[in-house]
């Protein structure tokens, strides 16, 4: 029996289910968003319409319809739908479900096994699906908020099509909210509740693209509507209580936000840098993690164009460690603004990368004899330190002495920019070059 067929006694349960569950779309025509996958002629729509039994992975943020879409596929293709939670299940349960699905397949019954949060399964648990997926005993649909490239076994991933679901727009969320207000059978239309000016827009904006959060907030706001049966902005604000920011300290959004912060600093956009910093801290990111990344920005993107930036960032780190959050957060804000507005240079970063590449690619030559210390007579007899010139005794404090191995003589890796203090360093390098040239031509 399909899980979509109502069992006895489920009608009253459906009425008491949360609004988000009652308003779950039941067909592709009801499904909102993901036009890049479900529009006419688009890949997932074609796969569903052709009844292609390939397994798939849905990757996207919370509340965009991953579970709903899996249920619609099962209903459309007349398959038994089994929902599995990666949080609750182990290998024993997996093997039992697989065995049952295998028996059902021998009787001509198709099974869709939906795994919510599939990224939470370890490698051994994921491997347990492979034989059944390969034999076609089940059609696996996995849902994940994490990048499948990192979280799903390559063997399993190669047997699935990956579809990326996008965050819903505010307009799409508004459409869902209005639909729920008007629907008398599944929504709250039977209560004849209206929405005041800006109330639904407030909920949609604060939902951050999560339909489930938006509908949950609408349900609470409807209960606060009062005798006039109108959801006001005040009622909506009370229902929301605190904005739910989409964030996972170990997941994709963690890296997306720190990347946005770093690239805003690099692009000298102080306002954007402050915004992304605020997003991270508001969502509960460890301020010391942010401080470490800011120190990295100082040496990677500002470098010697404004060397004081490194000290400022280290001071900000110390202040965060000393005061904690939220008091120390202001030091981080000060640091990112300074980094954004500081002159930029990645010359040292680039030079060090080039040096490491040459070390990897070239012969590891011994240190030239004139650069070696000679603390013993034997070492002096072997020529250690012979030909060494003490720079402080030389004119201009620059000796005409090669400090690289012979095969790398004259090689330059560091090319200072004309930004900030690095411009002075470029002038100094040119001065040193002239001094050496003059000594060689005397």
The number of distinct helices, counting runs of at least 4 residues, comes to: 22
Q: Strand share of the residues? A: 5-15%
Instruction: Give me the CATH superfamily of the largest domain.
Output: P-loop containing nucleotide triphosphate hydrolases
Number of structural domains? 4
CATH topology of the largest domain: Rossmann fold
CATH class of the largest domain: Alpha Beta
| First-to-last CA distance | 98 Å
Give the C-alpha Rg.
32 Å
Strand order of the largest sheet: 2-3-4-1-5
Descriptive report:
- The chain has 442 residues and is of the alpha/beta class.
- It has four domains: 33-164, 3-Layer(aba) Sandwich (Rossmann fold), CATH 3.40.50; 170-240, Orthogonal Bundle (Helicase, Ruva Protein, domain 3), CATH 1.10.8; 252-341, Zinc Finger, Delta Prime, domain 3, CATH 1.20.272; 366-441, post-AAA+ oligomerization domain-like, CATH 1.10.3710.
- The protein contains 22 helices and seven strands.
- It has helices at residues 10-16, 19-22, 35-38, 43-49, 66-76, 91-106, 123-127, 130-135, 148-151, 154-157, 170-182, 199-206, 211-223, 233-240, 252-266, 270-282, 287-302, 308-323, 329-341, 347-361, 377-381, 422-441, and strands at residues 55-59, 80-85, 111-116, 139-144, 160-164, 194-195, 230-231.
- A five-stranded parallel beta sheet has the order 2-3-4-1-5.
- Helix 6 links the parallel strand 2 and strand 3 (111-116).
- Helix 11 crosses helix 13, helix 15 runs parallel beside helix 17 (287-302) and helix 18 (308-323) runs antiparallel to helix 19 (329-341).
- The longest helix is centred in the C-terminal third of the chain and has 20 residues, at 422-441.
- The relative contact order is 0.07.
- Mean pLDDT is 84; it is low at 1-13.
């Amino acid at each position: 029996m399909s899980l979509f067929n109502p069992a006895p006694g489920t009608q009253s349960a459906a009425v008491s289910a949360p609004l988000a569950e009652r308003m779950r779309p039941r067909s592709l025509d009801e499904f909102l968003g993901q036009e890049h996958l479900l529009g006419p002629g688009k890949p997932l729509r074609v796969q569903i319409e052709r009844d292609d039994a390939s397994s798939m992975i849905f990757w996207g943020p919370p509340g965009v319809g991953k579970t709903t879409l899996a249920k619609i596929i099962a209903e459309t293709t007349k398959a038994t739908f089994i929902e599995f939670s990666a949080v609750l299940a182990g290998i024993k349960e997996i093997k039992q479900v697989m065995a049952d699905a295998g028996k059902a397949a021998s009787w001509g019954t198709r099974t869709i096994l939906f795994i919510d949060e599939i990224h939470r399964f370890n490698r051994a648990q994921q491997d347990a699906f492979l034989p059944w997926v390969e034999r076609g005993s089940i059609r696996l649909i996995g849902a994940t908020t994490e990048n499948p490239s990192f979280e799903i076994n390559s063997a399993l991933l190669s047997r699935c099509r990956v579809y990326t679901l996008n965050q819903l727009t505010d307009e799409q969320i508004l459409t869902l909210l209005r639909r729920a207000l008007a629907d008398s059978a599944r929504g709250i239309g039977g209560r004849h509740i209206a929405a005041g000016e800006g109330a639904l827009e407030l909920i949609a904006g604060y939902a951050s693209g999560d339909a489930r959060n938006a509908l949950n907030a609408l349900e609470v706001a409807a209960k606060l509507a009062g005798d006039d049966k109108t959801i006001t902005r005040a009622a909506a604000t009370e229902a929301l209580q605190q904005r739910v920011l989409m964030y996972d300290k170990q997941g994709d959004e963690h890296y997306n936000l720190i990347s946005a912060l770093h690239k805003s600093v690099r692009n000298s956009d102080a306002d954007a840098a402050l915004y992304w910093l605020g997003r991270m801290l508001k969502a509960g990111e460890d301020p010391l993690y942010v401080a470490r990344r800011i120190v990295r920005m100082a040496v990677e993107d500002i470098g010697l164009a404004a060397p004081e930036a490194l000290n400022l960032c280290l001071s900000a780190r110390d202040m965060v460690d000393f005061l904690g959050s939220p008091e120390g957060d202001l030091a981080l804000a000060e640091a990112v603004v300074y980094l954004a507005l500081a002159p930029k240079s990645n010359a040292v970063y680039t030079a060090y990368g080039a040096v490491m590449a040459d070390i990897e690619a070239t012969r590891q030559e011994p240190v030239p004899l004139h650069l070696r210390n000679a603390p013993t007579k034997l070492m002096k007899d072997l020529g250690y330190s012979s030909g060494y010139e003490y720079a402080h005794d030389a004119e201009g404090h620059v000796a005409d002495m090669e400090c690289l191995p012979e095969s790398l003589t004259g090689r330059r890796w560091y090319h200072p920019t004309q930004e900030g203090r690095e411009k002075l360093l470029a002038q100094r390098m040119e001065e040193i070059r002239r001094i050496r040239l003059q000594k060689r031509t005397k």
